[in-house]
Design a protein that fits this description.
Elements (H helix, E strand, L loop, with lengths): L8 H12 L3 H8 L3 H8 L8 H11 L3 H6 L30 H14 L8 H15 L4 E6 L9 E9 L7 H8 L4 E2 L4 H8 L4 E3 L10 H10 L3 E9 L2 E10 L8 H52 L11 H13 L6 E4 L6 H10 L9 E4 L5 H9 L16 H4 L4 E5 L9 H10 L1 E2 L8 E2 L3 E6 L3 H6 L5 H7 L2 E4 L10 H15 L9 H9 L5 H15 L23 H15 L10 H5 L3 H10 L7
Parallel strand pairs: 7-12, 7-13, 8-9, 9-12
Antiparallel strand pairs: 1-2, 1-6, 2-3, 4-5, 5-6, 10-11
Helix pairs in contact: 1-3, 2-3, 6-7, 6-11, 19-21
Length: 619
């Protein structure tokens, strides 16, 4: 057909149908238009078509878009052979070579501009569409981009990342299914191809029957998938081979001219640069996310470390047998990850024992995280322990790490566990058994690795019987119980505690005191100490504040422990001791052989004590 016969649109449509030997209905079906519209085009009722329809005709029939729209130029893209017009064993008998380079360059220019400011989140979808355009424009059946996820310089395995397969053709089904399974191709299996790719060489297989003996695995693979011809080109990024672009045909064989290969390599490197940019941005976001998490954990560690520095005791004090037995247990359990339950009355130093366990464990490089369950309201403790998401409740303006997250990799000490709300106990049990939980208001499961130490002054067995504490949680906590004896059972340690607290509280105010008289120590031992070590600490601190340098005047509290009714109060003991000394000295207060000299206190202090204790000289 001469060019002059193609001046009208109807003649062009008829030419295409005759060239491919198809009916109007088949022509309409392949372009997804109505047969009536084809009749209108051929009958001269339509004299123009849209650019979109011209592009469809270009992709489907290998026709120059310019020829369809303007009516001049070559009607068919050289070398593009459609499935309906080329026999399976035809390798370009007309001598044409694949690829209209001018059309390809327009596609390359279009594609390259697309990725300049493309948001990373849209990259995969745009890539898939461009692979479709590339496959259809150049008459391939499939186009695949393989990527290596190994460090730069390594290239031993690749996996399909983006691809397009013409699934309308039954012959492509095996390839489509294989790609969807995303198998990994490794250098051990495809040794021939990997060696070529590592050298930067492309591999053009026109007929697999004539491939080298070393490519036996590639030949077998092509037979499994029904490949006829295949071209694979290595793609480099930053000087390293990072991916492969591979195109293939199934029912027809293809030649691979140098002009097509060079342009396909160029387009492939546009794709791989976009993907590597995406990877770099994802790694950056991941690094920033990790930095934010580390920052939050550091801030949490710092907060808990500051709280830890406020604690009353910095070391274990005492030499009694009860303390020695306790320290043996500490040494036994510290190297393990077992849960520990510390039992004892209020003020016995359970927190100090918890810190001693932590400091002797493998987790000692991070601070001990502490929570006093009795000091937190039930409405607050869930957020405090498990954290919350932004907007989880009124006032939750930001996401907050809970103590279980902050304690990852270290020890969490839950003091007064007997006051833990019953409704939250299943959530605590799940953390102990499975190491996972969710933040308040969150859906994602968070995994944590903590070593739990709990303490209580309550009888948990009675709490379980009363229904205020879950039995399964009690069994989970009571793996290794440690009982801290009360101060009344460690009376021999009182002199050491007094010395420790005098040093502790006196150094802060620059005060130094002489040794406490034996009589005062004996008075301290005679008291029941219902508040235990904490009460003794308070008594010594108050004495340090009220006393001047040199002589420490200790005012003892009244006994409030009903279990010690058979003992006199410390006030009564002190009052009786002073009266006995005064009677011995015939109520002489100062001077040689006076009561003040005998008691080793200044006369003014003795008079003050007499006034406070209501001691008056009898008539």
């Amino acid at each position: 057909m001469k060019r002059s016969d193609l001046t009208r649109l109807n003649a062009r449509i008829e030419f295409i149908r005759e060239k491919h030997g198809i009916s109007k209905s088949e022509f309409a079906k392949r372009l997804e238009i109505s047969p009536a519209y084809v009749t209108a085009l051929e009958g001269g009722e339509k004299t123009r078509i849209s650019a979109q329809l011209a592009k469809l005709i270009q992709y489907e029939f290998g026709v120059e878009m310019r020829w369809m729209l303007e009516g001049y130029g070559e009607p068919f893209i050289p070398g593009i052979k459609t499935k309906s017009s080329v026999a399976e064993d035809d390798i370009g008998r007309d001598g044409a070579q694949p690829g209209d380079l001018s059309a390809f360059e327009r596609l390359l220019s279009e594609v390259s501009a697309t990725y300049i400011n493309l948001p990373i989140g849209q990259l995969k979808e745009v890539l898939r569409d461009d692979f479709r355009r590339l496959t259809q424009a150049l008459g391939f059946d499939s186009c695949v981009l393989y990527m290596s996820d190994e460090p730069p310089g390594s290239f031993t395995k690749i996996a399909p990342l983006v691809w397009f397969v013409d699934e309308k053709q039954e012959s492509n089904r095996l390839m489509s299914e294989w790609l969807k399974e995303k198998p990994t191709i490794d250098a051990k299996e495809f040794h021939y191809s990997f060696e070529k790719w590592k050298q930067g060489e492309y591999i053009p297989f026109v007929e697999f029957d004539h491939c080298p003996e070393e490519a036996f695995r590639e030949k077998l693979h092509s037979q499994e998938l029904g490949l006829q011809s295949c071209l694979s080109i290595p793609l480099s990024f930053a000087g390293n081979i990072s991916g492969i672009i591979a195109v293939a045909t199934f029912p027809v064989r293809r030649e691979w001219p140098e002009e097509l290969i060079s342009r396909l390599r160029l387009l492939g490197e546009v794709f791989i640069n976009a993907l590597m940019r995406k990877k770099s941005e994802e790694e950056l976001q991941e690094a920033l996310s990790e930095i934010r998490e580390l920052k939050e954990r550091f801030e949490a560690d710092y907060l808990y470390l500051k709280e830890e520095m406020k604690e009353e005791y910095k070391g274990v004090v005492g030499k009694s047998s009860g303390l020695r037995d306790l320290l043996v247990k500490v040494r036994q359990v510290a190297p393990t990850n077992a849960n520990v339950l510390i039992l004892g009355e209020t003020g016995t130093g359970k927190g100090l024992v918890a810190r001693a366990i932590h400091d002797s464990s493998s987790r000692r490089d991070r601070p001990l995280v502490q929570v006093n369950c009795a000091a937190l309201a039930p409405t607050v403790i869930e957020s405090e322990l498990f954290g919350h998401e932004k907007g989880a409740f009124t006032g939750a303006t930001t996401r907050r790490f809970g103590r279980f997250e902050a304690a990852r990799g270290t020890t969490l000490f839950l003091d007064e566990i007997g006051d833990f709300p019953l409704e939250l106990q299943p959530k605590l049990l799940r953390v102990l058994e499975e190491g996972e939980f969710e933040r308040v208001g969150g859906n994602s499961t968070i995994h944590t690795d903590i070593r739990l130490i709990a303490a209580t002054s309550k009888d948990l067995e009675k709490e379980v019987q009363a229904g205020r504490f879950r039995s399964d949680l009690w069994y989970r906590l009571n793996i290794f119980p440690i009982f801290v004896p009360p101060l009344r059972e460690r009376l021999g340690d009182i002199p050491l505690f007094v010395e420790y607290f005098i040093e502790k509280y006196g150094s802060g105010g620059g005060k130094k005191f002489q040794n406490v008289p034996v009589e005062t120590i004996e008075l301290l031992k005679s008291y029941s100490w219902p508040g235990n070590i904490r009460e003794l600490s308070n008594v010594i601190e108050r004495a340090v504040i009220e006393s001047n340098r040199g002589r420490l005047s200790i005012e003892l509290p009244r006994n409030r422990n009903p279990g010690f009714k058979d003992r006199m109060t410390l006030r009564d003991i002190e009052r009786g001791s002073i009266i006995r000394v005064l009677e011995r000295t015939r109520w002489k207060i100062k001077g040689p052989d006076g009561a003040a000299q005998y008691l080793d206190i200044p006369p003014e202090t003795l008079r003050s004590r007499m006034k406070k204790l209501d001691i008056k000289r009898p008539d």
